[in-house]
């Protein structure tokens, strides 16, 4: 009866508004109708079954990002993020607080020492926790202590290991906050332009880069950024998670340049060092014979030992980004990173895309033969007896041992740990020649080691 009465009341109310419709503005009339209908329908329906009352008090947790035309909202969001990051930065330990922490650890260490290493047990660990202040509290947990616990017979941990752990954590948080300042969208990743700005503003803080001319800064930034994107964005999405940047070792290599006394060999092996960047850019300029700032296929063919096959170079220019058939410096950097890091999965992915000439997602006998014929042609040009493709094909499949005996996938190449060798055999005469004469090289290395040992005895 109650439900029927409510229905009649709803009908009567709507009928009343309909009768007066001609006397009111249509838009206003429609709004009133919707309001009355919603109110009466809600009262009539009553609460839904299994509907929790907490639904009425759950706060809004999703906020749509402001659009490009909402300038004021964008500025407000940027300012609020900056304030938030500044607050998080103030929560970190500063140098004075770190020094105080070291003093407390030294004061409460637990004898005896292990060599020159001071140790601390859990009881003294908690004493330091109580005296070190609220900022240090997250580091003094049982979980952290157990992680650093090794084989000490007294159940202690190394003070130096613990302090290094704290330093590393503080550095990671500082770096994350620093990177987040360049995250324009605030989504936890950096676009290429964001990372370029970060590295450009980082250059003056790195003493090892003091000798770089400002005119070279743009080329240096491009060289540095390409390594991050080549290895951390293999799917070419144009963005990298800040979390991935922190997890890899590249940022450590870059910030290593703060060391004013960095050894020469360490600089040469560091992609981000001034000598390394100048080496790569110098090679690019040397290859650019017509000095137009771009590389043609003919110019790129002189890369390295000048033994890359024409078929492979054709595929590079077909698949990689070029401008009027020529390669710019950024595309060249991807090429160099792939060539110099052939063992890495990202490099194998780069080469696999070039080798998969039929775009089937795997390499078959046709694809292998397509590239190896160019190696055979080069061997004839150098007066060498061509090697049978059938033999090479069998050796490649024996090395890789693919899941499908007729098809080699990218995953097969990576899991085999022979991807570098397979790539070298198919694209580079020098790489193939090195593989064919591997036993000779091994014998020569063994002989030289024996000779060195014999010489050392005298």
TrEMBL record:
Keywords: Calcium, Cytoplasm, Metal-binding, Nucleus, Repeat. InterPro entries: EF-hand-dom_pair, EF-hand_13, EF_Hand_1_Ca_BS, PPP2R3C. One of its GO terms (molecular function) is metal ion binding. Pfam families: EF-hand_13 (PF17958). SUPFAM superfamilies: EF-hand. Residues 1-12 have a biased composition (Basic and acidic residues). It is found in: Cytoplasm; Nucleus. Residues 1-29 are annotated as: Disordered. It comes from the Eukaryota. Residues 184-260 form the PP2A regulatory subunit B'' EF-hand domain. One of its GO terms (cellular component) is spindle. GO terms for biological process: cortical cytoskeleton organization; microtubule cytoskeleton organization; regulation of dephosphorylation. The keyword Calcium applies. PANTHER family: SERINE/THREONINE-PROTEIN PHOSPHATASE 2A REGULATORY SUBUNIT B'' SUBUNIT GAMMA, SERINE_THREONINE-PROTEIN PHOSPHATASE 2A REGULATORY SUBUNIT B'' SUBUNIT GAMMA. This is Serine/threonine-protein phosphatase 2A regulatory subunit B'' subunit gamma. The lineage of its organism: Eukaryota, Metazoa, Echinodermata, Eleutherozoa, Echinozoa.
């Amino acid at each position: 009866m109650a439900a029927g009465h409510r229905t009649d009341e709803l009908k009567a109310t709507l009928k009343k508004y309909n009768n007066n419709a001609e006397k009111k503005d249509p838009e206003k009339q429609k709004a009133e109708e919707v309001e009355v209908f919603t109110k009466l329908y809600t009262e009539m329906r009553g609460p839904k079954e299994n509907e929790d009352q907490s639904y009425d008090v759950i706060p809004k947790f999703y906020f749509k990002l402001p659009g490009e035309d909402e300038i004021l909202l964008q500025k407000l969001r940027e300012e609020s993020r900056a304030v938030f990051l500044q607050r998080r930065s103030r929560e970190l330990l500063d140098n004075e607080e770190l020094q105080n922490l070291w003093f407390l650890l030294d004061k409460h260490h637990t004898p005896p020492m292990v060599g020159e290493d001071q140790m601390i047990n859990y009881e003294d660990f908690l004493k330091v926790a109580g005296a070190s202040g609220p900022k240090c509290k997250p580091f003094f947990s049982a979980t952290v202590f157990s992680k650093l616990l090794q084989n000490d017979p007294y159940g202690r941990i190394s003070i130096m290991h613990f302090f290094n752990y704290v330093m590393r954590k503080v550095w990671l948080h500082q770096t994350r906050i620093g990177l987040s300042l360049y995250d324009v969208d605030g989504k936890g990743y950096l676009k290429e332009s964001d990372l370029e700005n970060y590295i450009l503003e980082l250059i003056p803080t790195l003493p090892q880069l003091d000798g770089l001319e400002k005119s070279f800064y743009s080329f240096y930034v491009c060289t540095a950024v390409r390594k991050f994107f080549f290895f951390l964005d293999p799917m070419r999405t144009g963005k990298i998670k800040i979390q991935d940047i922190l997890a890899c070792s590249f940022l450590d290599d870059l910030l290593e340049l703060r060391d004013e006394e960095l050894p020469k060999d360490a600089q040469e092996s560091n992609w981000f060092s001034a000598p390394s960047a100048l080496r790569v850019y110098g090679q690019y300029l040397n290859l650019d014979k017509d000095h137009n700032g771009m590389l043609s296929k003919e110019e790129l063919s002189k890369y390295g030992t000048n033994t890359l096959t024409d078929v492979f170079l054709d595929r590079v220019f077909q698949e990689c980004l070029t401008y009027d058939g020529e390669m710019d410096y950024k595309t060249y950097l991807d090429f160099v990173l792939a060539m110099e890091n052939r063992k890495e999965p990202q490099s194998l992915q780069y080469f696999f895309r070039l080798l998969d000439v039929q775009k089937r997602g795997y390499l078959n006998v046709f694809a292998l033969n397509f590239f190896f014929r160019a190696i055979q042609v080069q061997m004839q040009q150098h007066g060498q007896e061509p090697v049978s493709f059938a033999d090479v094909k069998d050796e490649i499949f024996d090395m890789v041992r693919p899941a499908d005996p007729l098809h080699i996938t990218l995953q097969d190449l990576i899991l085999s740990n022979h991807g570098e060798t397979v790539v070298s055999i198919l694209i580079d005469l020098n790489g193939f020649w090195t593989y064919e004469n591997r036993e000779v090289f091994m014998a020569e290395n063994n002989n030289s080691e024996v000779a060195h040992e014999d010489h050392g005895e005298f």
